[in-house]
Design brief:
The structure is a homodimer of 314-residue chains. Chain A is an alpha/beta fold and 314 residues long. Chain A has 2 domains: 4-120 and 303-313, ATPase, nucleotide binding domain (Nucleotidyltransferase, domain 5, 2-Layer Sandwich); 128-298, ATPase, nucleotide binding domain (Nucleotidyltransferase, domain 5, 2-Layer Sandwich). Helix content of chain A is 39%, strand content 22%. Chain A contains 11 helices and 12 strands. In chain A, the strands form 3 sheets. In chain A, strands 3-2-1-4-7 form a 5-stranded mixed sheet. A 5-stranded mixed sheet of chain A has the order 10-9-8-11-12, sandwiched between helices. A two-stranded antiparallel ribbon of chain A has the order 5-6. In chain A, a hairpin with a 2-residue loop joins strand 9 (141-147) and strand 10. In chain A, helix 4 (112-123) crosses helix 11 (304-313), helix 8 crosses helix 9 and helix 9 packs across helix 10. The longest helix of chain A is centred in the last third of the chain and has 25 residues, at 232-256. Chain A is elongated and about 65 Å long. Chain A starts with a strand and ends with a helix. The model of chain A has no long low-confidence stretch (mean pLDDT 96). Chains A and B meet through helix 9 of A and helix 9 of B.
């Protein structure tokens, strides 16, 4: 008898669903829209319909499905209770019970950033590790901590909120969280643009980034493209970025001592060069007992969520 | 049939041993010397003799003992392998197997700082919690991280080495680990004396600490005694200490999001006032989702190790 599991990545506009085998191969993946009307009350029934429909289509019997994992954009405790997911219109509710009731199958929910880390551990950049940290460098900086193969949820679902580690004392700008000097203010795509703008203003050095800025197209990608083209000012910006992120990851290492740091999110498209800038400063700041941690790029991209969700149940 | 377990805290000069019931009551505790001759080869046989002797004395049958836990001063992996314990003269060896063989009972070993955290969770300042951080403020700063009721060992046994989180960029002095600006340089007993010496040198304010320093008796205890007596300069030192430690614990919170921080070690004898100074700055630096963490004092003192060791097996 074949065994299957489903992984669901619930986003604000789209629900991604994957059908997996327990070895971590995705057999099929597809998307449905996230219907947020009526305080998001249609979302879980839509997901249940999609899964039950796929099982009928593929003639998959219920007893050959190990379960359904789901990543949710909000804090989720170990019992599957989501404590408000504002993007979806949800208040407090138990996903494991509600979706499990609709499907009559085991369901396990987790926070989407943590679940993505589990996916990268299972089949991505952290494959083969059981102690891993995923740093997702996108518009903000998110993260997921894996200890002994399990996600670290924390007491209130804020485990892995590494973007808000205080990293700099003299920051005048306010972070989205209300604090000053959070890691996210330097290591996110937005943060890198901030660093670039500051550097362009404080330096008189020639740089291709000046024209790019004049065209209104300064971005994290533009900075790392310029680094690869040998632009000296862009390299200074990358050093600063590496210093802040390396320092932040060194602090994390003193807490959970991972085997590997996996760098994901849009910024990680810059490639291996990113790992070089970060690991250089990581080694400078970290406790010697954690010095051998590896730096790898995430490999699952937007599919990390469905992989990790499937791994929740198998 | 009564059930028992033993908790062993192996130190550089003394081995503490406790006989427990599985509910966490210590029935008897005693000490034997740590014989470090012959590269520490006598240590585990001595411990086995002490435990077997106690069982004979109390007529405890082998099948009523759940097991023996032991905390060791060195990095210990999840299989009980200690990777060099320089204080004991030990190279790499598997404590679970060797001591388990001598006793013919289940043995589980862990690093002493992590094991102490487990003890404080079981029966001390963190009782009732399953997500907890112990910060041990002694000559240095050690720590233990508990996630979902289990110790975080990490990839190389350096989980919970929170004393070496980089916390200050401008530190001229070198930490014992070789880095600059580690948390330990400000939040240990030694660190507090350093802060006090700097403050006394940079300020012209009156303070009882000046005479104490002249008598060569400046200590962390003297600083907090002066704080309690209302000494303004001592209060400034305590604010600085609170700022550094609060900032460090806020970084830890963004990783593992504990319910409670337990403050232990010699410095914690200053009492509740310590929690006030630390939590004030913690709240200033921490991510809002982790703001509600509590601060408590360790309550088990030097017995945390035997409690945690017993908890390893029951």
């Amino acid at each position: 008898m074949n065994q299957y599991c489903f992984g669901v990545d619930l986003g604000g506009t789209t629900v991604k669903i994957g059908l997996f085998n327990p070895e971590g191969s995705v057999l099929e993946k597809w998307e449905i829209p996230t219907r947020k009307t009526d305080n998001g009350s249609k979302i879980l029934p839509d997901i249940a319909d999609a899964i039950l429909g796929k099982m009928e289509e593929r003639k998959i019997a219920k007893d050959s499905v190990i379960g359904v994992g789901i990543g949710v954009p909000g804090p989720v405790d170990d019992n599957g209770v989501v404590h408000k997911a504002v993007n979806l219109g949800w208040d407090v509710m138990n996903i494991n019970e509600i979706l499990g009731g609709l499907l009559d199958m085991p369901v396990k929910a987790g926070n989407d950033a943590n679940v993505a880390a589990l996916g990268e551990m299972w089949c991505g950049g952290g494959k083969g590790c059981s102690n891993m940290v995923l740093a997702t460098l996108g518009t903000g900086v998110g993260g997921g901590i894996i200890v002994n193969g399990r996600m670290v949820t924390g007491a209130t679902g804020a485990g892995g909120e590494i973007g808000h580690i205080h990293i700099a004392d003299e920051e005048p700008d306010t972070c989205g969280c209300g604090n000053h000097g959070c890691l996210e203010q330097y290591a996110s795509a937005t943060g890198i643009v901030r660093l670039a703008n500051r550097k362009l203003a404080s330096s008189s050095k020639e740089s291709t980034l000046r024209e790019i800025k004049a065209d209104g197209e300064l971005s994290a990608k533009a900075v790392f493209d310029a680094v690869k083209a040998g632009d000296a000012l862009a390299c200074e910006i990358a050093e600063e970025f590496g210093m802040y992120l390396g320092k932040g990851l060194a602090a994390i290492a003193c807490v959970v001592n991972p085997e590997v740091f996996v760098l994901g999110g849009g910024v990680s498209k810059a490639g291996e060069i990113l790992c070089e800038y970060v690991s250089k400063y990581y080694k400078e700041y970290v406790f010697h007992g954690c010095r051998e941690a590896q730096f790898k790029l995430a490999t699952l991209g937007n599919d990390a969520g469905i992989y990790g969700a499937a791994k929740l149940v198998c």
